[in-house]
Amino acid sequence: MNVRRRLISGTAVAAATALGLATLSACSSDSAAAANTDKFDVVASFYPMAFLAERIGGDHVHVTSLTEPGQEPHDLEISAKQTAALQESDAVLYLKNLQPSVDDAVAQSEIKTKIDAASLTTLEKHGNEVGGHAAEHDDHENEELAGLDPHIWLDPVRYSQVAEGVGKAFEKADPDHAADYRTNTAALVKELGALNTEFVNGLADTKTKVFVTTHAAFGYLAERYGLTEESISGLDPESEPSAARVKELEKMARADGVTTVFYETLVSDKTAKTIASDANLRTDVLDPIEGITEKSRGKDYFSVQQANLKALQTALGTK
After folding, report:
1. For the chain, percent helix, then strand, then coil, each to nearest 5?
2. I need a surface site. Which of 188, 277, 284, 290 has the fewest CB within 10 A?
3. Cα–Cα distance between 134 and 237 in angstroms, integer?
4. pLDDT tens across 270-317, in order?
5. In the beta sheet, which residues pair with residue 212?
6. Which of 104-113, 226-235, 250-259 has the highest mean pLDDT?
7. pLDDT of amino acid 307
8. CB under 8 Å to 50, separation ≥6 — which residues?
9. Which pTM value belongs to this model?
10. Contacts of 174 (CB under 8 A, 6+ apart)
11. How many H helices and E strands in the chain?
12. Edge-to-edge strands of the sheet including 40-44?
């Protein structure tokens, strides 16, 4: 990823309200073929947005993701073909400040229904994000989002809030099917509530509350369930950790009972394995669910989140 990272605590340092892959079942396999169908055509920026659109829209929508399965979403550059298809679609569902090229394309588009997931819940600053995605394009519109962590979908509660907002937007944009959108949204919100309960119960009593990741994507999840995320400092996923950082991590691991360094599915596990080997720790996958591939531990958002819960329980030591 082209993201600078710093060691962080999972405790949020500030809060701000910002009202501001295996292809999904009804998605086109062509990421540009989004428009001019006989359904409500929705362009989603990447998997978590496409998943919401599919579940809420049901049979009434044709959903296309700008980010291909297995593609790292932060690095996406939209093609001219995708931009043209975006113009012809009925709605776009995206997450502002995560993918600069998407933000630019949406801003320049005349598409009537623009749904920004970041405007449907509260965003917070988590330490790594100060120098992360947002800092790379500070000349962007809506500077109030600068430094805010975009990984809201990993918190089932915030993701549920986004789902409710998306449902209302679909109802307004496609009123002929509003009743079905309301029904589908309510079912999804209920399922997300059950997932939240699983996490609450599953992580309530662990031997340690600290976990280590190569990518600081889990700040919201950590905060929701009383955990602390520590991410690896200033390292590209392909680079070797410094001796100083390994020593720091070893010290932290001993003090906090850390057993595992987590890596993710869409980037190399080299950094995690190097640090784990030097610090005598295990490695495992904690999936930020930015895309679903054959390597994913699950076929959709819910099954991958349940796999994440099991991985955290093992690493943290359930009592």
Report:
1. 45, 15, 40
2. 277
3. 19
4. 878 888 887 888 999 999 999 998 889 999 999 999 999 999 999 999
5. 230, 261
6. 104-113
7. 97
8. 24, 27, 44, 63, 64, 65, 93
9. 0.82
10. 40, 60, 90, 181
11. 9, 10
12. 61-65, 40-44, 91-94, 113-116
Residue 114 structure tokens: 């623009």
For residue 232, what pLDDT band results from cuts at 50, 70 and 90? Answer: confident
Residue located via tokens 């947002």: 134
Is there a contact between 256 and 208 (Cβ–Cβ < 8 Å)? yes
pLDDT recorded at residue 154: 97
Q: Are 69 and 293 in contact (CB under 8 A)?
A: yes
CB contact at 8 A, 1 and 215:
yes
Task: Provide the sign of the torsion angle of the four alpha carbons 29, 35, 40, 46, taken in this order.
Answer: positive
What's the whole-number mean pLDDT along residues 115-121? 97
DSSP state of 130: G
| Two structure tokens written together for 215 | 């990518």
Contacting residues for 135 by C-beta, under 8 A, at least 6 apart: 4, 129, 146, 147
